[in-house]
Design brief:
The chain is an alpha+beta fold. It folds into two domains: about 1-45 and about 150-220 and about 325-365, FAD/NAD(P)-binding domain; about 90-140 and about 220-315, D-Amino Acid Oxidase, subunit A, domain 2 (D-Amino Acid Oxidase, Chain A, domain 2, 2-Layer Sandwich), CATH 3.30.9.10. The chain contains eight helices and 20 strands. The strands form three sheets. Strands 5, 6, 7, 13, 14, 15, 16, 17 and 18 form a nine-stranded mixed β-sheet that branches. Strands 1, 2, 9, 10, 11, 12, 19 and 20 form an eight-stranded mixed β-sheet that branches. Strands 3-8-4 form a three-stranded antiparallel β-sheet. The longest helix is centred in the C-terminal third of the chain and has 20 residues, at about 350-365. The chain is elongated. It binds flavin-adenine dinucleotide.
Length: about 375
């Protein structure tokens, strides 16, 4: 039987970033991904925004890894030719209450170590984004864009170059954990024995954790749908424009993204779905989606929209519960050589590089 030092379950941005980080420190690392290609789930079905870290409670894993991940991901992308751009972003306020919320965001952002935050008035906003309606906006200079699918590929390529075996169509099906190792079966990889296992299974991380008897967390899938604005109106927005965040904590609200390729995307909305791979059924009707986007871009009309794609968030909060839930990154309580990453929703793309360093440290401590 093959023996590994570490097996990573899940070939999204988190699993691949962990693989790239471990590859530099450890031999005999395997990554197993159930789908035929890497990065096909949340990691390539998102907004591609490198968040700054202003939204999350100080001291949380989201705050820490988002701020650090933002810096690391720009560095990594520049070094590995991953298309990216520090565009900055505007968070708009349309009412006095939303303006007060912007002030709270600045305070929180500064506590989290986010630099350069400033409020701009309606006139300056009109100069930067003439079609956007708001009375003020928060300027967040460290936010930007990255081509998420290419980022996943770059982490995977680095891992593979340093000897990690990346197996696709290899679903972790069964585990037999023992004190010093874990025996497992993963699709066409077959049987394997490993000293450490990292659960980076995204939407399915709760189910992978349950294989070890760890059932504390449950993931509730929340779909986000995107629409694209017709070519003739792409020029209506120059960069990244967000509303003040949705108080439910389910999402940051439908925002406007001028992608690196020049498309104008609207989205994502936030809707609970039953099925973790239901990307297509019962999309929100064009008119009601357009109404959400009109809050930022009043001249937009339903006919200006074309359906684009959707992604599914791995939320830890059940429907109806408000607030932001933190990432869970922990050693399994029964099997400390199993590292569980659960509830890695937004800003997981931004945070992946920093989470990977943290996880690699935990793995190194286990193998020492
Ligand atoms: C609509 C939307 C918009 C978002 N926007 C942003 C954004 O702008 N900025 C940002 O920072 N973050 C954003 N996010 C969050 C970000 O995309 C995710 O946090 C991140 O991609 C999570 O990466 P992951 O590797 O944990 O999960 P995934 O990409 O879902 O990867 C997990 C992988 O595990 C595999 N897997 C599952 N079970 C098994 C098994 N048993 N065996 C083998 N493989 C398995 C899956 O097939 C999958 O490929 C957004 C997310 C969504 C859905």
């Amino acid at each position: 039987m093959e023996r590994a030092n570490a097996v990573i379950v899940g070939g999204g941005v988190v699993g691949c970033a962990v693989a790239a980080e471990l590859a530099l420190r450890t031999s005999d690392v395997f990554l197993v991904e159930q789908l035929p290609r890497l990065g096909m789930a949340a990691s390539s079905r998102n907004s591609g925004v490198l968040h700054s870290g202003i939204y999350y409670p100080p001291g949380s894993l989201k705050a820490r890894h988002c701020v650090e991940g933002n810096r690391l991901t720009y560095e990594f992308s520049a070094a590995h030719d991953v298309p990216h751009k520090k565009t900055g972003k505007l968070i708009t306020a349309t009412t006095a209450e939303e303006e007060a919320e912007l002030a709270r965001l600045i305070e929180r952002g500064r506590e989290n170590g986010v630099e350069g935050l400033a409020v701009i008035g309606a006139e300056e906003l009109r100069r930067r984004e003439p079609k956007v309606a708001a009375r003020a906006a928060l300027w967040v200079p460290s936010a930007g864009l990255v081509e998420s699918e290419l980022l996943v590929k770059a982490y995977a390529a680095l891992a593979a170059a340093h000897g990690v075996y990346l197996a696709t169509s290899a679903r972790l099906e069964r585990v037999e954990p023992a004190t010093d190792f874990i025996r497992l079966r993963a699709g066409r990889v077959g049987e394997l024995e490993t000293r450490v296992l990292v659960n980076a299974a995204g939407l399915f991380a709760d189910e992978v954790a349950a294989l070890f008897g760890y059932r504390r967390y449950r993931i509730y899938p929340v779909r986000g749908e995107y629409w694209e604005v017709v070519v003739a109106k792409r020029g209506w927005v120059n960069a990244l424009v967000y509303p003040t965040p949705d108080p439910s904590g389910l999402s940051l609200g439908v925002h406007l993204t001028k992608t690196l390729a020049g498309r104008l995307l609207l989205g994502p909305n936030a809707r609970h779905v039953e099925d973790k791979d239901d990307y297509e059924q019962d999309w929100e009707p064009r008119e009601s989606f357009c109404a959400r986007a009109q809050k930022l871009l009043p001249e937009l009309r339903p006919d200006d929209l074309r359906p684009a794609y959707s992604g599914i968030r791995a939320k830890l909060k059940p429907p109806g519960q408000a607030g932001i839930e933190d990432f869970v990154v922990t050693r399994d309580p029964l099997y400390p050589h199993v590292i569980q990453l659960i509830g890695i929703d937004s800003p997981g793309l931004t945070a992946a590089s920093s989470l990977a360093r943290y996880v690699a440290q935990l793995v190194a401590e286990t193998l020492a």
